[in-house]
Amino acid sequence: MPRRPVVALVTDAIHPYSFGGREIRYHELYAHLTAHTDLHVFTMRWWDGSRVRTEGGVTFHAISRLLPMYRHGVRSTWQALVFAVACLRLLWHRFDVLNVDQIPFLHLLPLRLVATLRRKPLIATWHEVWGPEYWRYSMRVGWRPAWWIERLAMRAPDRIIAVSPETARRLRAELGERTPITIAPNGVDLDGVNQAAPHEQRTDLVVVSRLMRHKGLDLLLAAIARLRERGRAVTCRIIGDGPERDTLREEAERLGIAHAVEFRHDVSEQKDVYALVKAGRVFAFPSTREGFGIAVLEAIACGVPVVTTSARDNLAQHLVRRSRRGIVCDHTLDAFAEALAEALDAPADDAPTEPWVGDYALNSIASHVVKAMLP
């Protein structure tokens, strides 16, 4: 019997300790990858006990201590540096394929060295191109070196797996049309969606999001306040956690809508996410930057209409435009509040899930990822 290839997957964040789109992507792909490979995940030390543990056929390796990924609401440079240096530990591990998550960029440079010395292919999963505008906004001082590192990181892999056609297009604009890029979008567990019953506690608006500044949740809170000022007793459920948790709670208090907004920081199981999303009438997604928008896809699969904005770097708008009940509006308070009101006033739609969502079935997407890793 031939030996199964050993895949080393490097990512600084894993589910359920960190809850976000990329963590969910890898978590849901584990079972499909372990059917074809011997999978080893190299990450920070999120758990107590031994540095190496095995769960569900996946071997997890802690190559660095656990450090906060965010500082003042943006990515921590110190965490990125420590994790990048720790990635040199892979020089002493056996693997056939090195698959790397793009974030936080800096680690791709030492991993390029590891792959070269070990004579193994380096494949990177790319969620979004941040670009100079992001770095200028988030760092102000010293943003140019950060953008140069991102550009160098794009050139490190032998092949790239892009999670959306738009991300692939932006990569090719920077790297050239001949760059080897495979598009393998995020998938959704349609069986899990279909089996989930709506949570008994209903709400008007619901959102699933990491609590970060670029997610635009301050705009959502302002829109809720605007609608309530107009006599609409709108309620909202915000599912997720992140560095802006306290700031958003304080903003809800300041706007006088804390009683109408439920924050759920304790949800880690996808079945519970689906149940809570189905309990909402409208999925509100005011993010300014998304490489794909897995939460939007899941909401559409749950049969909940989505309202998002046309912010330039919000690539989730392309999914919403495909939805028969989706609304894409300008990224302004007036436009977003009006779009939410329009979606809430729309008649209920009990039609089956939109057929195109089936293109993102997890089994199908997983096969694309496996082929990209093991061509």
What does this structure look like?
The chain is of the alpha/beta class and 375 residues long. It has 2 domains: 178 residues, 3-Layer(aba) Sandwich (Rossmann fold), CATH 3.40.50; 168 residues, Rossmann fold (3-Layer(aba) Sandwich), CATH 3.40.50.2000. The protein is 38% helix and 20% strand. It has 14 helices and 18 strands. An 8-stranded mixed β-sheet has the order 3-4-2-1-7-8-9-10, sandwiched between helices. Strands 13-12-11-14-16-18 form a 6-stranded parallel β-sheet, with helices on both faces. Strand 1, helix 1 and strand 2 form a beta-alpha-beta unit. The protein starts with 5 loop residues before the first strand and ends with a helix. The mean pLDDT is 92.
Question: In a nutshell, what does this entry contain?
Answer:
The protein is built from 14 helices and 18 strands. The protein is α/β, with parallel strands linked by helices and 375 residues long. Strands 3-4-2-1-7-8-9-10 form an eight-stranded mixed sheet, with helices on both faces. The protein has a six-stranded parallel sheet with strand order 13-12-11-14-16-18, sandwiched between helices.
